[in-house]
């Protein structure tokens, strides 16, 4: 590479804007909603998730080093420290592809447990811990936004939640920046899987024990099986903590969003 080419290459890299990764398949995390204040929403989401993750998933105590590790080179020690720093990054924002909606992916195995703990704690103590973060919906898997892909991705969740202990359920379907997925086909396919693993499961559209949340954004479908989703105001953190005297003034979904609950 010539000196001129190297100079151009350095100039290009220096001025190239950093872009966050976007939604992809096989992700776990949390779909967060806000009203235009995305930076503040991200900050509140990180604070809330890290606070309760330390409670629900406390870090393991450090193991004693073996004698051979005591003689590691400086280079090996640096590599180990960098590896540990990367592993601690439990949450990372990525672009969702929809305005006023953020996705925070996680390396935690059970985002549902964490989100459920957060909403139950907020409900019990009544303390509002966010202003800009409205909803915090746990997502257990992402896939391509096709009925076939959604069916395949949902099957392990159907086995996990609905096979051994029959329960009541509903399906909540939302779509943004995508009009190609047939809502009724998705709902029918998912419901059939629930009944297939255990015919004693029952539909309850008012207060189901479990809601199957399917969020379609552009070409990606986000799927979460969420306990007490309706009971806890669809995991709306502001509505959960409002007092009886404040009811009717709570914040709902960001304006312009499309919401369709299963009938």
From TrEMBL:
State the Gene Ontology terms under molecular function: RNA binding
Q: Which GO terms describe its biological process?
A: tRNA modification
Task: Show the Gene3D superfamilies listed in the entry.
Answer: THUMP superfamily
What family name appears in the similarity comment?
A: Belongs to the THUMPD1 family.
Describe the location of the THUMP domain by residue ranges. 121-227
- InterPro entries (alphabetical): THUMP_dom (IPR004114), THUMPD1-like (IPR040183)
What's a Pfam family this protein contains?
THUMP
Name of the protein in its database record: THUMP domain-containing protein
State the UniProt keywords alphabetically. RNA-binding
Does the record's keyword annotation contain Lyase?
A: no
């Amino acid at each position: 590479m010539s000196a001129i080419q190297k100079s151009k290459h350095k100039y290009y890299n220096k001025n190239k804007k950093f872009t966050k990764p976007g939604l992809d398949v096989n992700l776990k995390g949390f779909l967060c909603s806000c009203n235009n204040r995305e930076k503040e929403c991200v900050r509140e989401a990180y604070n809330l998730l890290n606070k309760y993750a330390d409670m629900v998933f406390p870090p393991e105590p450090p193991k004693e080093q073996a004698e051979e590790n005591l003689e590691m080179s400086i280079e090996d020690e640096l590599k180990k420290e960098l590896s540990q720093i990367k592993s601690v990054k439990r949450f990372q924002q990525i672009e969702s592809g929809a305005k006023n909606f953020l996705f925070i992916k996680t390396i935690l195995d059970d985002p549902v447990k964490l989100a459920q703990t957060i909403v139950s704690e907020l409900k019990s103590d009544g303390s509002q811990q966010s202003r800009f973060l409205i909803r915090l919906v746990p997502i257990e898997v992402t896939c391509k936004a096709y009925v076939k892909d959604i069916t395949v991705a949902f099957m392990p969740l159907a086995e996990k939640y609905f096979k051994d202990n029959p329960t009541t359920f509903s399906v909540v379907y939302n779509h943004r920046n995508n009009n190609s997925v047939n809502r009724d086909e998705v709902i029918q396919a998912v419901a059939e899987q629930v009944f297939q693993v255990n015919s004693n499961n029952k539909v309850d559209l008012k207060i189901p024990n479990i809601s199957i949340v399917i969020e379609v954004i552009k070409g990606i479908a986000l799927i979460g099986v969420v306990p007490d989703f309706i009971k806890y105001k669809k995991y709306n953190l502001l509505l959960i903590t409002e007092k009886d005297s404040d009811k009717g003034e709570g914040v709902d979904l960001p304006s312009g969003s499309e919401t369709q609950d299963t009938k």
